[in-house]
Amino acid sequence: FEAIAVLTSGGDSPGMNPAVRGVVRAALNQGIQVFGIQKGYSGLLAGDLRVMTSASVRNIVQRGGTILKSDRCEAFKQPEARAQAIQILKDNGIQGLVVIGGDGSLTGAHCLAEESDLAVIGLPGTIDNDIFGTEDTIGFDTAVNTALDAIDKIRDTASSHERHFLVEVMGRNSGFLATHVGIAAGAEMVVVPEYEVHIEQLGQQLSESRRSGKGSSGIIVVAEGRDPGLTYRLAEQLKQQGEDPRVCILGHIQRGGQPSGHDRVLASSLGAMAVSYMLAGYNDIMVGVADGAVVDIPLDSVIRYRKGLDPKLFELALLLHK
Ligand code: ADP
């Protein structure tokens, strides 16, 4: 390999910067030139490629967001646009590409690998931890901690006013973030898209805990799921059952902030390993984590299968507040 490129795409996540740094420094150490593509696939189509030096990634290991910028690019779903992108990479003498992003971005990466002779390696960059084939994703740990920090504060108000709070966390269609946050925050209940909500039961449980003196204030963590109005509707239903809960949507604060130590180490090692796998001849794979070790998974499987929420973990979230 003489030259490779790296891009970040889709929703940003804390840790993308140390991942970019890992790719750039590992490649430069092998004498390989590195291009940083700006703004994901849109920047690639616009030919916005910049030569990266060791100094380009200095002082970014601790910074949230992505210095390469990120974007969503509808056009990239068309093969004609991808053919153009492949030509742009070739014209710049680029033989390999590392794509850091979520499910959608990795789908784009798989298409590029299939439609060209480029070596394409994906890295899971999302706060949702919803990528098949890896137990961890870059940004998940930081997002869990950000949500916990917020919930610990909300709990002060909940208990001062003896009131329940419904706190909505991100996670797209998956309940990973909500389940982890729920367990770590000691939530009274966790609502995730993978399991049906039994609102009457929830209402009874809250009233019961108020009556028994166990708690007149509590936190219910709700995953954003597929249904944007769910959290407010749950609050309405609880009101009809005699509760007076408040709603707090944590929103985009979960995507930002300094990456945690865990995410910095994860991102740095996945970034460097992406280059090692590429040099070892791997292509069309994602580099992720299984049983605590760095592993490769074909991108084909990554995008074909849905990662299931561990039922034991979800049960634990419900069990521990009883
Ligand atoms: P994320 O990567 O965080 O899941 P998106 O789902 O928005 O975010 O995807 C990011 C980008 O990846 C899209 O804007 C598009 O450019 C590309 N992409 C998504 N789906 C596909 C697809 N089916 N084929 C090719 N490219 C895709």
Q: What distinguishing features does this structure have?
A:
single chain; 322 residues; 4-stranded parallel sheet; binds adenosine-5'-diphosphate; 11 helices; alpha/beta; 7-stranded mixed sheet
Outline the secondary-structure elements.
Elements lengths: L2 E6 L7 H14 L3 E5 L2 H6 L3 E4 L26 H13 L4 E6 L1 H13 L3 E6 L15 H21 L3 E6 L6 H10 L3 E3 L7 H13 L6 E6 L6 H11 L5 E4 L11 H19 L5 E6 L2 E6 H6 L6 H9 L3
Parallel strand pairs: 1-2, 1-4, 4-5, 5-10, 6-8, 6-9, 7-8
Antiparallel strand pairs: 2-3, 10-11
Helix pairs in contact: 1-9, 5-6, 6-11
The chain binds adenosine-5'-diphosphate (ADP).
Helix content: 40-55%
Bound molecules: adenosine-5'-diphosphate
Order of helices and strands: EHEHEHEHEHEHEHEHEHEEHH
Rg from C-alpha positions? Answer: 22 Å
- Average pLDDT across residues? 95
Global outline: elongated
Low-confidence spans: none
The biggest sheet, with number of strands, parallel, antiparallel or mixed sense and barrel status, is:
7 strands, mixed
Structure annotation, total helices: 11
> Number of DSSP strands?
11
Distance between the termini: 57 Å
Order of strands in the sheet with the most strands? 3-2-1-4-5-10-11
What amount of the residues lies in strands?
15-25%
Which structural class do the helices and strands define? alpha/beta
